[in-house]
Amino acid sequence: MTRFLFWATLILFSGQFANGQGPEGYNYDEAKVGIYTLPDLLVNTKGKAVKTKVDWRNRRAELLKLFAENVYGETPANSVKLRFQTTSVDKSALNGLAIRKQVSIFFVDYPQLPPIDILIYLPKASSKPAPVFLGLNFCGNHCVTTEADIPLSARWMMGGNNDAVNKNKATEKARGMQARRWPIEMIVKRGYALATAYYGDIEPDFPQGWQSGIRSVLGDTTKATNWGAVGAWAWGMSRILDYLQTDPAIDAKRVISIGHSRIGKAAIWAGAQDERFAAVIANESGEGGAALARRWYGETVERINTSFPHWFADRYKTFNKRVADLPVDQHELMALIAPRPLYVASADGDQWSDPKGEFLGALHTEPIYRLYGKTGLGTTTFPAVDQPIGKTVRYHNRTGIHDVTDYDWEQYLRFADELVR
């Protein structure tokens, strides 16, 4: 019964209220957001101004520590020995458009852990190493493509008993279930590769999921600053990047971290910690992602910590009713991506994720991009729906609900063409 109630809550509060009506007691009225003061990016904890790139590098290290201690938890610094095993290569995938690889990442020192199984599509027409979008998926590699020979994941899956999931195991009905979110043909035709893995390979997404994931062997569960699931998923993205750097078909200097919803949070945190990522794309990442925590609008710190107690460090819960005391806010997280390109996206039917709060989070990174001689968004005006804006930092608020669509991918491909290639 406890598991059922947890997933009922998850479904309710991750559905994003497409009709614009939030749960009772949560604000969807901009006039009621109230007054808040953001931490100053350009002043360190000792009160000294950040004026140079050297100053910023010191401030950057300070902010990484503050986010680790107070929000996502401390990512273990342990060096983990990996073994990469290519399990399959199809040189004529997608009717000859792509080369498809399947690669497993094994943890040599922790043989009890399942591997991270990566699915990679490379543009067959490319004569040089391909830039790549790297993102985790929600339901197994078999769900991102309609190709019938992708092995069905045997890992724990979100959901109860339905056509796609039976007793938390995927069924054949799950094949291609989220293929529309991953327009692989569009991506490879533009000369990009796609690398994806099931986020549950790193840690299953429920409160006790850590017991069978990487957090069972790394970290300290007795500490309030121990890393949460978002931190584990971000760490897993960096381990996939470790593999990609060994693959001669991949341009390892052009790996773009991308994620939707909770994986959007992980994609930002991965890009903030790991500067090997060339750019970051956060699609409707909301609270704990791109949206400002101090805005009382849509999902709140208290709600996300209550619904998903395993996502963040335990210390984050101490700010549930005193968000103004947080020593950081999300504009500072995204500023850690600078001077690399950043894309933040919202949807007008996803008010739970606070589109304006996501826009403002992106906007307030501007001083750091300016420090590097770059223009961030380049405007302070919240754009009309379906009107992308920005320079090195991009933003759009798409028509529709909490989702990833071809419209989103069209913007991301254009963004990559202009800023990452």
What's the topology here?
Elements: H1 2-14, H2 53-72, E1 82-92, H3 93-96, E2 98-107, E3 116-123, E4 130-137, E5 165-166, E6 169-170, H4 184-189, E7 193-198, H5 229-244, E8 250-260, H6 262-273, E9 279-283, H7 301-307, H8 330-335, E10 342-347, H9 355-363, H10 366-371, E11 389-390, E12 393-398, H11 406-419
Parallel strand pairs: 4-7, 4-8, 8-9, 9-10, 10-12
Antiparallel strand pairs: 1-2, 2-3, 3-7, 5-6, 11-12
Description:
It comes from Spirosoma fluviale. Pfam families: GCE_fung. Residues 225-372 form the 4-O-methyl-glucuronoyl methylesterase-like domain. One of its GO terms (molecular function) is carboxylic ester hydrolase activity. There is one protein chain. The chain contains 11 helices and 12 strands. The strands form 2 sheets. A 10-stranded mixed β-sheet has the order 1-2-3-7-4-8-9-10-12-11, sandwiched between helices. A two-stranded antiparallel ribbon has the order 5-6. It has helices spanning 2-14, 53-72, 93-96, 184-189, 229-244, 262-273, 301-307, 330-335, 355-363, 366-371, 406-419, and strands at residues 82-92, 98-107, 116-123, 130-137, 165-166, 169-170, 193-198, 250-260, 279-283, 342-347, 389-390, 393-398. It is of the alpha/beta class and 421 residues long. The chain has one domain (2-419): Alpha/Beta hydrolase fold, catalytic domain (Rossmann fold, 3-Layer(aba) Sandwich). 27% of the residues lie in helices and 18% in strands. The N and C termini lie far apart (50 Å). The radius of gyration is 20 Å and the shape is globular.
